[in-house]
Amino acid sequence: MTKSIRSNAMRAVLAILVVTVAALAFLPPSTRASAYVTYGNSYGNVCAVQHKLTTLGYFSSAVDGVWGSKTSAAVKRFQSAYGLKADGIVGSGTANKLGVKLPVSGGISKGKTTANVAAVQARLKTYGYYKGTVDGAWGNKTLSAVLGYQSNAGLSVDGVVGSGTANKLGITLSTSARSGGISKGKTSANVKAVQNALKSSGYYTSTVDGAWGKRTMCAVMSFQSDHKLTVDGVVGSATEKAMGITLGSGTSSGGGSVGSTGNISDSDLNLLARCVYGEARGEPYNGQVAVAAVVLNRVRSSKFPNTISGVIYQAGAFTAVSDGQINLTPNESAYSAARDALGGWDPTGGCLYYYNPATATSSWIWTLTVHIKIGKHNFAL
Fold first, then answer.
1. Theoretical Cys-Cys bridge with 47: which of 65, 270, 351, 376, CB 3.0 to 4.6 Å?
2. Rounded CA gap, 374 and 329, in Å?
3. Are 219 and 350 in contact, with CB atoms under 8 Å apart?
4. Rounded distance between C-alpha atoms, residue 19 and residue 21, angstroms
5. SS3 state at 90
6. Partners of residue 355 on adjacent β-strands
7. Rounded to whole angstroms, how far apart are CA atoms 359 and 371?
8. What angle separates helix 114-126 from helix 214-226, to the nearest 10 degrees?
């Protein structure tokens, strides 16, 4: 074959390839690609479709949020039954017929606060939809449980716990930050009694330490849900009775100036809230509690003054004191954070120091071991 013949042959082959590629580009989606959700095969979208197909009897495999041949086949069967084009593609028409609202982002209309998420998880666990730990953290397991519940309850399947889903679940959500508590006071003795009762019944698996925190609150919520009580994380008379315990009034525990909001003066509470506001406003709520906890950890430590005012006004200890922000009027979030820290919540796990790595100028602070980062602050011992 001459050089010119070979060249002509190669040009012909290339021309055929170009035409073939161009033709493939104009084929309908069902021909050139596997079936899918037009809004994207995200975990939430696929889960919503799978849950609804399961409820309607078209899908019997595990709801895993992963698109595959079984999901595609189930969609096609559904489409055929409802007079839709059986292409396995979940577009707006199929989604509307299914009763799913795509795309799914999931969440809680009043905010993914720890208390709101824990309340949702606790109720869904009682009803058998949620298999994970009631921990107040939103994730795929929680989203899938919400979608499954909505599907079976005849609600709009969107993964969002709005008023309709909340009412159906029988829970009350709140836009404010909550951390549960004990109506008679978060004294160490009361908290230990609650923790012991929860541990003996299998709801609490952590250390019985008398310190109120997220794990204790979540365990209380799980207990309340299973016992058909108001799921608010607060141990009131009804929850106390169901647990079979008798709590103290919280006024004679002798816990000193720190450890319970019932044993602290209004002036100290106000000062601690002002410190939180001056040092951590704009930080996530658990970051505000963490700043208050550092102050209280210092009060308990032999390395620092043994009063809240002594710790806060120690020379050079807090920027808010140095620049005068300690005198600003704190908001309710700062007060709530101060109360939660006084009630025993310590997101830092006992840290004595914190700093913003973006603005810290002290060379000494960088020698400390960082235990946790919350918001813009590193917390260290």
1. 65
2. 24
3. no
4. 6
5. strand
6. 378
7. 19
8. 30
The conformation of residue 157, written as its DSSP 8-state character, comes to B
Q: What share of the chain is helix, strand, coil (3-state, %, to 5)?
A: 50, 5, 45
Per-residue pLDDT, 266: 83
How many angstroms separate the CA atoms of 239 and 231, rounded? 10
What SS3 state is found at 329?
coil
- Cα 340 to Cα 324: distance, rounded to the nearest angstrom: 25
| Structure tokens, 235 | 């141990």
Note whether 144 and 175 are within 8 A (CB).
Answer: no
Which DSSP helix (H) or strand (E) runs through 216? helix 214-226
In angstroms, the CA 125 to CA 140 distance is 15
Write the single-letter amino acid at 80: S
Concatenating the DSSP letter of every residue in 355-378 gives: E-TTT---TGGGGSPEEEEETTEE
Residues of the chain with pLDDT under 70: 1-34, 250-263
Give CA–CA dist 45/39, Å, rounded. Answer: 8
Q: What are phi and psi of 373, to 5 degrees?
A: -115, 125
Whether the Cβ atoms of residue 213 and residue 149 lie closer than 8 Å to each other: no
Q: What's the per-residue H, E or C state across 269-294?
A: HHHHHHHHHHHHCCCCHHHHHHHHHH
Tokens describing residue 186? 């978060």
Give phi and psi for 182, each to the nearest 5.
-130, 125
Retrieve residue 30's tokens.
């069902």
Residue 245: alpha-carbon gap to chain centroid: 30
Q: For residue 146, give both structure tokens.
A: 């919400």
Asked if 355 and 343 count as a contact pair (C-beta separation under 8 A), the reply is no
Tokens 């709101």 identify what position? Answer: 116
Give the pLDDT of residue 7: 58
- Please give the pLDDT value at position 271: 95
What pLDDT does residue 272 have? Answer: 96
* Amino acid of residue 108: I
Overall pTM > 0.85:
no
